[in-house]
Protein 1
Amino acid sequence: MSAKKYDAIVVGAGHNGLICAAYLAKAGRKVLVLERRHQVGGATTSEEIYPGFTYTCCSYVVSLLRPWIIRDLELPKYGYEILPLESTFTPFPDGRYLMRDSDPERTRRSIAKFSPKDAEVYKRFGQEMAELGRLIKPLIDDPAPDPLSRDPRELLRLGRLGKQLRGQGDEWLYANVKMMTMSAVDFLSERFECEELIAPMAISGIIGTFLGIRSPGTAYVLLHHYMGEIDGSFRAWGLPKGGTGAIANAIAASARALGVEIRTEAPVAHLLMKGNQATGVVLENGDEIHARAVVSGLDPHRTFLKLVGEEHLDPEITQQVKRFKMRGSSGKVNLALDGLPDLACLPGPGPQLTGGITIAPSIDYLERGYDEAKYGAFSRKPFMDVLIPSLTDPTVAPPGKHTMSIFVQYAPYHLKEGAADWPNQREAFGDAVIDTLSEYMPNLKDRILHRQVLSPWDLEQIYGLTEGNIFHGELSLEQLAFLRPMAGWSRYKTPVDNLWMCASGTHPGGGIMGAPGALCARTMLGKRAV
Amino acid sequence: MATPANTVIVIGAGPNGLAAAARLAQAGKKVLVVERAAAVGGLSARHEFHPGYAVAGILHDEALLPRAVAEKLGLSRHGLKFQKAPATYLAEASGPGLLLPSDTAGAAEAIGRRSAHDAKSYTAMRAFLDRITPLFASILSEPPPAISPGSAGDLWQIAKRGLSLFRIDRKDLLELARVAPMCVADFLNEKFETPLLVEALAAPAVASTWSGPWSAGTMTNFLLRECAGGEAIEGGPPALIAALLAAARAAGAEIRTETEVARIRLENGNVAGVTLASGETIDAKVVLSSADPKGTMLKLLAPGTLPLKIEEEFINLRARGTAAKVHLALSGPLELTGNEGQLDEAIRIGGGHVDDLERAFDAIKYRQFSERPNLEIRVPTVADPSLAPAGHHTVSILASFAPYKLEGGWTDAARERFGGAVIAVLEQHAPNLRSRIVAREVLSPLDLETRFALTGGQLHHGEIALDQLLMMRPAPSAPRYKTTVPGLFLGGAGSHPGGGVRMTAGVLAAEAVLGG
């Protein structure tokens, strides 16, 4: 069909694909984005699943999108607006509760009910994390340094980095090494004494991973989630106005304005290969489109095993790809509500409902949930991160009605009975979620107009996330930085000539951060690949 | 007691303490070793648990013992003889089990009778381990690198290590970087299809750590173990103690047993000696403690000695015991059903799948002991019949997992219940076991703490975990044996490179004393 030749074809219109395309177009390249679904955004999506209600189906908060990307792509001009979320509320089964919000004094008083000592430590904790984050921040805005490299330029960069690190002093270095290697619980327990605070704080260390809060490496993920910055303030979370999909729409609009062509309902079947070189793509309808470079916005498994195909890969690469751990561990339950539910511990409307509501009452609770998942069952009593987006952004539900987004962990993709059993277990999983939440919100069930349950299997079917992994691959130590997605292939370039990767399966990883997309484009342009 | 000015007091006469004493005395220091127990040896001493019945050490595995350190101390002159480690019999519930020789070719052949794929994988894995062993050998035999190299010596050490990295193939280095932070279950499942083998290879990497095979980072411990010596010694751990004692004495070190230190004395902030539990004081400007770091820094130093921040480091050092020792006296051999007619020295019994090992670990998270513990077994009487009356045998079992802090406490009843759980697991493989039991001893982590002065009952003096290795061990303020208290050195299992029947920490601490 198309005789037009593109400089680059981006497969998948998730936020990273769109960002990569936008940057390439900004540099004057002719770019085509192909999306399988009827809309852009991938997992950065909001959809009207039930008439009148816009669900934030997958990703539900934003904090990580890099500020320079927002500026470069002029996203506010295209409708990008973040409504701040200012609190986290943690109810306990015995009626007590913990409220952490943007007012330090209120937060201190709330924590002091549990432990006066922890209330004091907490005041300094954000600052401490910000200090520690100084190491990570430059690393997430650049391709990952490769400490095992033998390239003199890379060694020079490492030397500079080493010098910079040394300048920070031993104490800071030790704290960083500990943070990279400890579990979230151990890391927090060195600072805090009360479990009612440690448990809800530790969950940031496991969101989207198949790790328990006691697994080494989770302290790093904790920091990863502390990197959020909206208007420069550390650890600030927000809701995109109009739902998460509005971010994707803003990026897409910016990309289009820069000349990017975006086609939806254009599923790619596989790449066009000439030897070890990608020359374009073949759509499922048989159309062939050629380009100088192909950029995959899909996860590493899909990119290599589906787009390229094992037959075009060195068996060693195939093995490495297969060893890259996906293992989705979480699900989503989205609700349309007739009215606001009441929290048993603090009934009525109020700030306790407007922020995040975290169901993480104890370390053992979270650990038991993890143990069930290890052996192939969803947690009967899961950790939940609950939001009522309509309270912050009334445009997503009819007047007086509400939407509720429930992020649930653990829901292992690999059930004992096999992943394909998820359709049989999906509603039981939804019931476990609603039953557990009802212990804290007794009238929740009466308010439900509609419920959508997304298991990891569903996330795979609908959004093309292999094994339902929301980060395109586990954020475990061996799959980060210069090892993401594979040792030796962490710079967006792939073993297939002219094929690049730009999504969460590459450094610096998942979340609505945008850095992989932007860094991929920067690298491609730097190498004159397009 | 007044002593010469160059006196060094060494606290504890386990392998590290005695090795430190030998090294210091050989370098001309006046050395006094003080040991609270009646006999030297610590966890490596011959342990008589019932009249006439003994095991060859609370720690019964010499695989970590470094030959180079033994040579440096001249232990062969004092009777130390290395030998090939015994084969390990992996028992299984229904099947013949697997007798795994300690050499690669023999093991691969045995595995090959189960699975040709696994035999090939095993050979390839050992080859990879052999290729990276030079790197690990240097890590395990030297003080840990400085976190921010300052001195010329630091830079030289880093340069040397950098060069040794260059000698290893980049592909191997990338693979090492990939696997080191992994969990041991993922790594072994990538390689092997025989569940029995995966569980058995994973078990040593998690024994007496606070982690299960699915815990991230356990591969590092696996690599540290697999790249260590892997040999055994004639006579087991007590033979090492005998050689060390002879070497230390020959060099002029004095060893006093039944001499418990109550306090490390300071004068003007510097070490001035020790005060014994008896009230006696001994002067010395240098004290090298091979006792555990928490005990040394938090109990032997007077409260308030350490600045709060430093004290916190030692409070935060995680040292939770996770295993119990069970000792059995038998009126006959330990006969296993899968392996009739053969007397094995080393045996492993698990549930048959790596998930069973993980389940055993799960229990301690909730302050319970495992009802189906994983057993690492030695039958020392096979090699040394003198440990029991003629025809009788003793069995040494390291049983994982059992928490230090058990819900309800380690009462006599709880201890007996755990002993019962261990016997029940063993009995499934040794049906005639019960009638042969003459006596049994169960040492819970709490017992290990009270009887052997091990804080938390932690056999490694501090858990083996990613954030408690190298210069993080035992604490950032004491990364290279020297503490912030002038004259006080830490040279036990709590310091790099860690515990087990090993002497490296003691020798490196002694060298830190000599270097200072």
Protein 2
Amino acid sequence: MKKVKVLRHSNKASDINKRSTTTTDVSKKIVPFRTVRNIRRGHLIGAMRDINHIELASWEQDVANTQRSVEQQTLTGNNRFYNALDRAQTLLSQVQKREQELQAMNEEMEATNEELQATNEEMEATNEEMEATNEEMEATNEEIQATGEELRAAGVYARSLIEANLDALVTIDTDGKIADVNSATESITGRTREALIGTDFSDYFTDPEKAEAGYQQAFREGFVQDHPLELRHKDEHATPVLYNASVFRDEAGKIQGVFAAARDVTQQKKTEEKLQNLLNQLKGSQAQLMQAGKMGAMGTMTAGIAHELNNPMMGILNFVQYCLKHTSEDDRRYTVLQDAESETKRCSEIVQNLLTFSRMEQEGEEEYRKVDCTIILDRVLQLLSYRIVKENVLLTKHTAKGTPIIWIKENNIQQVFFNLINNAMDSVNTSEKKEIHVDIRPEGKFVQMTTADTGCGIPPENLEKIFDPFFTTKPVGKGTGLGLSICHSIVESHGGGITCESEPGNGTKITVLLPIEKRQEKTK
Amino acid sequence: MNKRILVIDDDESIRKSFILALEDTDYQVDIAESGEKGIEMEHKDKYDLIFLDLKMPGLNGVETLRELRKMDMDVPVYIVTAFHKEFFEGLKSAGEDGLDFEVVKKPIGGDDIVLVAQSALEGATGY
């Protein structure tokens, strides 16, 4: 059998249509010349050449076969058509059925739809209601938020007031434990809130029992007022406070604890102390004034008496001395007359001292003169010699060579020396060691006179008052409190200075500086 | 001739004191109980030394001093005083007027009286 050569080049399948497939076509066709184009298709042309060799007998067979095949195919196609038609009809019936079903469903759905619409309407209504409710709720919410804000602000405000309070505020629960504190409590105790809360409140007072009593009283009576206590700081220093406390309750009226405020009264106490001191001073001053008044009157009287006594004293002195002079030392009366003389001299000294004091009032009338201070000192020591010996005081004196003669008011300076040494005598009076050292020496532009004693000394708190008029620690009647004050004003008026150093129990040293240069007199 | 001393004082004990104190010396001591009397005596007889009290009834010491100085500028006058305040101004102005005087502090004992007298009359350096 002749084979139809199949194109080997499948890509060229399109070329098949361009070729004759039937014998007629093939016979009618003139084989194309070998063109360059055809040469390129040499292979194909060669195939065509093969077709010339097909046998006719077999060809017809083939055609019949093909025709049968076509018929068969046609039949098959018809069958297929009817089959398809059947199927289409089946489908159609199915569709119709389906349509009915759909119709039914549609109706159902429509019904459902109506229902849904109704429901929808209901829901819309509900929705509107809900929206309204929602709006209401939003409004309510805003209100709640605003209220919350107000509440928070109120809370902050209340807390800030508590914190701002200068009083130490504490809440104490029914067990006596601290529940809350403000910052004033923190600073007054030196402890943090965290450290304080939950601890026993009475621990922070110097007298826990007294604090506890105040707290109990608050519980018992509902409150306690101005309960004086001392708060104890971490570093142990105490702050005086007035404690005010009252119970606080919950809504049901049940006692929740005690709310206490401790007011720092340090300043108040200081002021009270100052006032008390002032009052004491005032009383003292009053007493001193009365004393001074008495002294003034007494001074005048004393001066008068002293003056009046002077003449008879001088008489007695000379009479006794005359007798003494004309009495033999072997005579028993001689020593008696000696005693009479020395006692008369003592009286004279007393009178003289009284006059020295009264002469102080004439200070303005004395002139500045050139005087040797060492001579004044000798005179004063002479004046006090009786007392020095009698009281068994060891008095030593040192006067530096070359101490210049200076311009002073002699009687005034004598008064200063007298007062200072007399004071030293008083201070060693009760001491075991009774020593006084007096020293005069040049010191720069000054002559310096010092008295140092081994007496009782002056307490530091009195040191600054010793030059104040009427300040005295001597018993009433023994001192006027004027001595050092007079010394001070005399030395100042000379343009000098007076200072005091003292060690209680060990003695006192007073230094007087008097300028060497003549002081320009103040014109009145 | 013995040197003569006049004591002018209204107080008898003072006058007596001077007399007794100076009894054993060679000085002749006269006394006057007032300033007026003293002036009169000085006027009659010149004295070598006068002790004069300040506080006296009648003429006081300062006034007496002024009168005495009118008669005699040279006689040493010792004012014996316990520093009476009221006479200070007068004494001061008398000094300023060039009237010479010395001051003796009352009370003064026998030995001191003698010393003062000697120093005034003999220029002794004992006082």
